[in-house]
Amino acid sequence: MNNERKKRILKSRAGFTLIELMVVMIILGLLAALVVPKMFGKLGKAKTNSAYAQIELFGTALDSYRLDVGSYPSSLEGLVSKDSGAEDWSGPYLRKNEIPLDPWGNEYKYSMPGEHGDYDLYSLGADNSEGGEGENRDVASWKGLN
To answer: Structural domain tally of the chain?
Structure first.
């Protein structure tokens, strides 16, 4: 009987009470409420940094194109396929032989000649419209990563 009594006592004490589970859930909820907003803020900044890095890589490819051909391409397509009249084209100048989209899934904007330099290359940010703050701000070849 002694063994059976011990088993019953252990069995009745196994598991957590409803109050203990509720306390744990509240603590997890509070931690999530504090951590999740900070992580989303970092995600937006990471996308902006990624767009800036891609623009810098485009700049390197555009400069290589100019060294080979003598001028910048009329469109970004010139980096992956030969433009008519580009006799000394030695491309493709982008590694995957395709024009990548910005981190928000939009096309980069390119104009040659540019208003801010030999060419203008930029992303309109998360909102895909000019201007904006935070993740919506424009990322451009003529601007720093402030």
So the answer is: 1
